[in-house]
Design brief:
Blueprint: H1 3-6, H2 13-36, H3 38-60, H4 64-86, H5 103-124, H6 133-159, E1 178-179, E2 192-204, E3 207-212, E4 221-224, E5 228-235, E6 244-246, E7 270-276, E8 281-286, H7 291-294, E9 300-306, E10 315-323, E11 330-332, E12 337-340, E13 347-356, E14 371-373, E15 377-382, E16 385-386, E17 405-411, E18 418-424, E19 436-441, E20 478-492, E21 495-502, E22 513-515, E23 520-527, E24 533-537, E25 542-547, E26 550-551, E27 558-559, E28 561-564, E29 569-575, E30 581-586, H8 589-593, E31 597-602, E32 605-606
Parallel strand pairs: 1-32, 2-5, 4-9, 10-13, 12-19, 20-23, 22-31
Antiparallel strand pairs: 2-3, 5-7, 6-8, 8-9, 10-11, 13-17, 14-18, 15-16, 15-17, 18-19, 20-21, 23-29, 24-28, 24-30, 25-26, 25-27, 25-29, 30-31
Bound molecules: CU-O-CU linkage and copper (II) ion (CU).
Length: 620
């Protein structure tokens, strides 16, 4: 072998494919970077071009020098990437702030790292001038299969990034004039009830939790109908947060949705919520920033609005059903076996709230099936709204999806205790029994019952029919079908994932429902998935109209979350009487984050807030 042949190499197809894959991902990511930060955009275009040039040179003019240059250059690119993800870069939209790793940049780096290995091997070994066909195919095949696959994922992810700044209802000159921040409670001299909720990291039962005022659930807020409620949220968490008042029709600015009605409150910051508690009932509050993670960590509590002019029930208890932070266990008000005081003859009201279950993946999805053993009871209210002439039930299981509430009222028997059972967590293993929780009211024995054989409460024929403006409406101004589906594979937020969808679309790109003040709106919700979805509306109350095409026959039912089982369809109506930009989403938090989330936009209203990487607002 002489001097001149030493520097001549056979074409390096594997390295070429790997480098082209990385180039494709860089080109795909360039437009997003160009709009976000010009210098990054230019860098990505130049880098992609350099990698294409390298790929061509590796085929047409391979040499030892080229391999050496390719190795050094590619290592430098990997080095810059590592730096941007760890210490941050000096030249960046925010200098020296590390960026998050997403699939596309991971994919490009993986391709580059493997290309570097190929370069090294080539530099190390004596270069054969010619290689047999079989050898070429065998050494190229792995890269030929692997590089396009990874590049496909990387390019798809890069073309559908987590939006930098997504606005659900942007300002449009001549069309929108009222900002959500101007939609506040009117002045007045209502009795003022003031609370402070400090969100901070704490320990609950030996496990780390995020909590309001140090407890999970957070403190119960009890007010009277007509009160002006003022809550100061102080954020001592390591992350931004917010509070949403679930089920209460607050003015839009007070709705607590990060990226739509406010910016999430930064660590060290505070926010003052103020609204008038017009409707009595059982409600709750929870974080609406990064909801999927913050609520399970413990950021939730109950809110009760007592009716004006009524004599209080002898025993009025709020029971929050929830997963214990960082565990499979289920609890009621933080305990697996709560005991409540009551004497024979007492009237007892149990306000059940299904706040957050850990059982996201079970066959019944997220539905709790609480049942009261030991006394007949009425379902006095659902989602805080009274039912007309509720009749006593024998034991019947009450389906409660996440976010839903049921008020059970009964009289304590002359002897023995009453027990609430049927509350389940998840089984740690397929063969083990799921964790359970119960609540015992009063003292003494409780009759035995085979819970799983008990009938299920049916809200479509309970109580007595009564006039209802939506049930009786003959025409609606806006009608919209929402088809629920799960598991559709799509590129979303920079990844390839199995999204949960409304009408085949995933948030934030679902077409909003546009309404005008005063519109009667009808939603036809169809579930084509195998899970049960509690579909929750902000700022409004649904009237339940039909289930599977049949009109309900019992009491009018008013809900803020409708539980839609697999294969079922429900029609609900509401009056558009609360201007703003309002969320409509599945309350299974992983489904909402997985795509089942949209907005109802009032004519003429815009939001100055955006969700996405620029603001850090993640409503779900
Ligand atoms: Cu309880 Cu948008 O949620
Ligand atoms: Cu769902």
């Amino acid at each position: 072998m002489n001097q001149s042949s030493e520097s001549r190499y056979a074409p390096g197809y594997a390295a070429t494919l790997l480098t082209l894959g990385a180039a494709a991902i860089h080109f795909a990511a360039a437009p997003e970077h160009l709009s976000e930060y010009l210098l990054y955009g230019i860098f990505f275009v130049l880098l992609g071009a350099a990698q294409v040039a390298l790929a061509v040179a590796l085929v047409v003019a391979p040499s030892r020098r080229l391999y050496r240059g390719a190795l050094i250059g590619t290592l430098a690119v990997i080095g810059i990437w590592l730096m941007s993800r760890t210490t941050g870069l000096p030249i960046a939209p925010i200098p020296w702030r590390p960026e998050a790793i997403a699939f596309p940049d991971f994919a490009a780096t993986l391709l580059e790292a493997i290309a570097c290995l190929v370069f090294l091997v080539r530099l190390w070994r004596r270069p054969p001038r010619r290689r047999g066909r079989v050898r070429v195919v065998l050494t190229t095949l792995p890269a030929a299969l692997f590089a396009p696959l990874i590049a496909f994922g990387g390019v798809g992810g890069a073309l559908s990034p987590m939006p930098a700044a997504y606005n659900t209802a942007p300002f449009v000159a001549g069309q929108t004039s009222t900002s959500v921040v101007d939609l506040v409670a009117p002045d007045g001299n209502q009795p003022l009830k003031e609370f402070t909720l400090t969100a901070a990291t704490t320990t609950v039962g030996g496990r780390t939790a995020w909590a309001y005022n140090g407890t999970v659930p957070g403190p119960e807020l009890r007010v009277r109908q007509g009160d002006r409620v003022k809550v100061i949220l102080i954020n001592h968490l390591p992350a931004a947060t917010s509070i949403h008042w679930h089920g209460i029709n607050v003015p839009n600015e007070m709705d607590g949705v990060a990226g739509i009605t406010q910016d999430a409150v930064a660590p060290g910051g505070f926010f003052v919520y103020e609204f008038i508690a017009n409707e009595p009932g059982t409600y709750w509050y929870h974080s609406h920033q990064d909801t999927m993670n913050q609520v399970p960590r413990g950021l939730f509590g109950s809110l009760v609005v007592e009716p004006n002019g009524s004599t209080p029930t002898a025993r009025d208890y709020t029971l929050m059903i929830h997963a214990l932070p960082n565990s499979d266990a289920v609890a009621v008000n933080g305990s697996g076996n709560l005991h409540l005081e009551a004497n024979p003859g007492d009237t007892v009201r149990l306000r059940l709230i299904d706040a957050i279950s850990a059982m996201d993946f079970g066959p019944t999805g997220t539905v709790q099936m609480p049942v009261l053993i030991g006394a007949p009871y009425t379902v006095a209210a659902l989602d805080g709204h009274d039912l007309n002439q509720a009749q006593p039930l024998g034991p019947a299981r009450i389906p409660l999806g996440m976010g839903q509430r049921a008020d059970l009222v009964f009289t304590m028997p002359s002897a023995g205790a009453v027990r609430l059972v049927g509350i389940r967590g998840i089984a740690p293993f397929p063969w083990s029994r799921p964790a359970a929780a119960s609540v015992t009211i009063g003292d003494g024995p409780v009759p035995a019952a085979n819970v799983s054989s008990l009938p299920t409460f049916d809200l479509t024929r309970y109580g007595v029919a009564a006039p209802d403006p939506l049930l009786d409406a003959t025409r609606f101004d806006v009608t919209r079908q929402i088809v629920l589906a799960g598991g559709g594979a799509m590129f979303r937020n920079g990844n390839f994932e199995f999204a949960d969808t409304f009408n085949g679309q995933a948030s934030p790109l679902i077409q909003p429902i546009n309404v005008r003040l005063g519109d009667l709106v009808r939603l036809h919700i169809v579930n084509r998935s195998r899970a049960t979805h509690p579909i929750h509306i902000h700022g409004h109350i649904f009237s339940v109209l039909t289930k599977n095409g049949r009109k309900i026959t019992g009491s009018p039912v008013h809900l803020d979350a409708i539980l839609v089982g697999p294969g079922d369809s429900w029609d609900v109506g509401f009056v558009a009487d609360n201007p703003g930009i309002w969320m409509l989403h599945c309350h299974v938090l992983v489904h909402a984050a997985g795509g089942m989330s949209m907005t109802i936009n009032y004519d003429g209203i815009y939001t100055p807030f955006t969700m996405g990487t620029a603001s850090g607002n993640i409503p779900e």
